């Protein structure tokens, strides 16, 4: 994308414009269809189902009515200046509709079709036509080759997979930018298990126009967004990414899963910048300088996003661990303090007064040195008392609490105790098990306490809070 | 444990004896109780619920009858030579009952109570009494400080957590030895989510008598066991572990999660041998020589156990990846071939003939170079055809297949196609998502295809199959 046709190059214009993408008042779906085998069917259905309160205009010359809505023969028959047009037609047909969008002053156009630059030279020529058509216009394009957008706070879901095959997240505070559509959809389906919501999802696809850099700006200004996670196989521009990310990180945490790092994966993905893309260590250095937290798989990506959205960064590296299962405490200690790990935290050392206080709430056999192991006798009440001591302690920067509902004295009320403590000091929670554990995970999600179903995911999330604290302090010192 | 009182030092005697632990004909529960707050209640209830078909003898002088069974005042009132006695009484009372066990020739005794060596000098003296009492006797002790045993193939569950708080796995082929009771129970609860079964679980606790080395022997000889996974915080004897593990690995894969590796975790766990426990790299070398696969967290431990139980080891490092989601293929490639990872696999290079064959089954936009990306158009039929090509290919050592049921042409019948292919060439399957994905994971588990709910877990499992192949070939060359 060259700056000469980019309206977004003015920050004020950008913020103003992207508001229409995030929260449109009117959406047309060109290629809307009553045929469930057509993508235009799922897109229209998802938009209606997601509770969109603006105007919805199905566009298809073969129908007068669709799903209870009036259907239009073409965009030319609709009001000018629509906020959002979704084109659910094949590549060449989509290009014709794009002309209509431009002449009708549509603000944002989502081109779903593949068959562009990802397929070779012929497709690249088609994609160049997209750029040419919108140059100098008021129309911006998301895609092509995109599964669509999801903005739950606006009741906007233009994704192409029917909701009986895939669950879409509800309102939340994690923004998700994905270059891959399928991976994005699968990850969104996954996170609905415990009810994690998002502030928005955009699949940038081939990013003929709107890039991850524009969207970083958008989510940085979005009051619903508390953290931004990104899946990228290549960077639109390494330099612009670096400076934009650095700016955003001073406001909100940014997490990046960047694939295509191995020579073999490079063959499977595409690259824009030479060195950054081929050398993982160089990318690592650049991201560290920008303050972007790296995730290395799709689970970490959303886990980090969740932890960072729900909890403030750590001010130091001293972690207290509380558990009712001794082995879980030992494993947590190992994973937190592993000397071979690039991010290593410390076990908080509690002073004698604190240890004496702790002793009042546990059986004599329990361990009050860190990790604090209440044993199977541990109760919700004991957790509350101990969490009070830990949140007050000047020796503790963060708390990892295990909520293990399999023992008789831990009830669902543990959720309330954890919620209260998590408002006082950075905390992540681990929950291991199946049925009862899943219930606790869902309850913790509902009160926005970041909780995870394994020791590794719990300790990794704490490391993300630590890293963001480190980056924020460094960025503050630079100013 | 000194050899002079260890009947197990003769391998024949060991195999003979441990059969009584794994498949007892008679079980007495001393301290059985109708009071749901007592451990003896849950133990008796779990034993009855698990469908144990041998004799069950509740022992408690205060009752004549319990849960429909005749209750006995003491072991002295029962037949001699019981196969298994579970003592659900506090430490000192348990010692008295142990005397009764010895004089009545009980074969195995599970001492649940804590309050022994894990609590300090006084407890250590009590634990020494256990050893003294059974020296020269025909009685062997599991524990103390153990949550019990689970042998689903024998309908035997003596665990202490009621089954309404925790799900127990059914019959399977993964054996699980755990030094930590709580961690063991939590992990078992977790794996029931998709229905993974086990061949047995033993929490060795303080291992006053029976150690992980004895149990390695037992599971090595157990026809129901195809892989053995262990959680240990310390080794009973580094030297014995090394030689026994090496012997077992030549028959069955062994996976170890060893905690207490960091200085901080060492404080939380206890250690027996100096160097092995304090230096992670030394342990790594030793385990590699013995052919033991290391897991680094509780999820990996059972994932590796499952993959190794269900699939043969890899004969080489060339992996083919098949997916309907491009991003998932790219990420898989990264995680498989990451040059910074200690275990690095290669992407199989398919020859021109194979690529031409593949092309016949996919859309022109699909990628037939590895990773093979069928795109959202991929169907179960295309999977079947492509899997046939891959299982026949001499360029492919193992297959990672993603079963992603969110697209319209992939149905639950994908499970059958994957099952067939997994019988022909080593395969692991990845399934990402929530509702439909969970169904597919459960179906795949029911036909013993190792499947995992994330890209990382899928690629890690393939690496475990590779490592075991490497170890097996090396052990074979040594002979």
Topology summary:
Two copies of one chain form a homodimer.
Chain A: H1 11-22, E1 26-30, H2 39-49, E2 55-59, E3 65-66, E4 69-70, E5 84-87, H3 91-103, E6 108-111, H4 121-134, E7 140-142, E8 149-151, E9 156-157, E10 171-178, H5 181-191, E11 198-203, H6 212-221, E12 227-232, H7 238-249, E13 254-258, H8 263-268, H9 274-278, H10 280-290, E14 293-295, H11 298-310, E15 318-323, H12 326-337, E16 346-347, H13 352-359, E17 372-373, H14 380-392, E18 398-402, H15 414-422, E19 427-430, H16 435-446, E20 451-452, H17 455-478
Parallel strand pairs in A: 1-2, 1-5, 5-6, 6-7, 10-11, 10-12, 12-13, 13-14, 15-16, 15-17, 15-18, 18-19, 19-20
Antiparallel strand pairs in A: 3-4, 8-9, 8-11
Helix pairs in contact in A: 1-6, 3-4, 6-7, 7-10, 11-17, 12-17, 14-15
Beta strands of chain A, count: 20
By helix and strand content of chain A, what is the structural category? Answer: alpha/beta
Q: Name the chain pair whose interface involves the most residues.
A: A-B, 81 and 81 residues
Basic shape of chain A: elongated
Reported CATH architecture of the domain at 3-169 in chain A: 3-Layer(aba) Sandwich
**Strand count, sense and closure of the main sheet of chain A?**
7 strands, mixed
Classify the helix fraction of chain A into a percent range: 40-55%
Q: End-to-end span of chain A in angstroms?
A: 31 Å
- Rg of chain A (CA only): 25 Å
Question: Strand content of the residues of chain A, in percent?
Answer: 15-25%
> What is the CATH C-level name of the domain at 3-169 in chain A?
Alpha Beta
In which order are the strands of the major sheet of chain A placed? 9-8-11-10-12-13-14
Tell me the CATH superfamily of the domain at 3-169 in chain A.
NAD(P)-binding Rossmann-like Domain
């Amino acid at each position: 994308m060259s700056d000469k046709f980019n309206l977004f190059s003015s920050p004020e214009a950008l913020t103003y414009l992207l508001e229409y993408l995030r929260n449109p008042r009117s959406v047309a779906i060109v290629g809307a269809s009553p045929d469930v085998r057509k993508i235009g069917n799922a897109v229209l259905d998802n938009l209606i189902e997601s509770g969109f309160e603006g105007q919805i205009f199905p566009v298809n010359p073969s129908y007068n009515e669709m799903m209870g809505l009036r259907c239009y023969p073409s965009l030319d028959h609709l009001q000018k200046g629509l906020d959002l047009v979704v084109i659910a037609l094949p590549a060449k047909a989509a290009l014709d509709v794009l002309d209509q969008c431009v002449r009708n002053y549509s603000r944002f156009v989502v081109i779903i079709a593949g068959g562009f630059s990802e397929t070779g030279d012929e497709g690249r020529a088609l994609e160049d036509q997209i750029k040419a058509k919108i140059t100098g216009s008021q129309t911006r394009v998301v895609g092509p080759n995109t599964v669509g957008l999801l903005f739950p706070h606006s009741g906007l879901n233009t994704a192409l997979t029917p909701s009986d095959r895939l669950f879409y997240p509800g309102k939340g505070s994690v923004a998700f930018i994905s270059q891959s559509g399928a991976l994005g959809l699968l990850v969104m389906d996954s996170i609905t298990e415990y009810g994690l919501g998002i502030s928005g999802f955009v699949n940038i696809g081939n990013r003929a126009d709107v890039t991850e850099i524009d969207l970083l700006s958008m989510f940085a200004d979005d009051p619903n967004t508390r953290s931004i996670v990104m899946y990228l196989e290549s960077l639109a521009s390494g330099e612009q990414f670096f400076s934009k990310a650095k700016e955003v990180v001073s406001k909100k945490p940014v997490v990046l899963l960047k694939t295509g790092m191995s020579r073999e994966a490079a063959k499977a993905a595409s690259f824009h910048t030479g060195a950054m893309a081929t050398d993982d260590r160089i990318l690592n250095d650049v991201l560290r300088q920008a303050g972007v937290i790296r995730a290395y798989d799709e689970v970490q990506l959303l886990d980090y996003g969740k932890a960072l959205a729900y909890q403030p960064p750590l001010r130091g590296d001293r972690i207290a661990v509380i558990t009712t299962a001794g082995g879980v405490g030992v494993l947590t200690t190992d994973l937190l303090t592993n000397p071979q790990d690039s991010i290593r935290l410390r076990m908080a050392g509690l002073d004698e007064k604190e240890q004496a206080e702790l002793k009042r709430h546990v059986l004599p056999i329990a361990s009050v040195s860190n990790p604090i192991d209440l044993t199977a006798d541990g109760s919700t009440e004991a957790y509350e008392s101990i969490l009070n001591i830990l949140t007050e302690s000047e020796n503790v920067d963060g708390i990892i609490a295990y909520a293990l509902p399999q023992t008789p004295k831990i009830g669902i009320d543990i959720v309330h105790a954890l919620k209260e403590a998590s408002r006082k000091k950075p905390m992540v929670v681990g929950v291991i098990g199946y049925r009862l554990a899943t219930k606790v995970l869902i309850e913790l999600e509902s009160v926005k306490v970041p909780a995870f179903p394994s020791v590794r995911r719990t300790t990794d999330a704490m490391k993300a809070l630590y890293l963001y604290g480190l980056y924020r302090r460094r960025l503050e010192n630079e100013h």
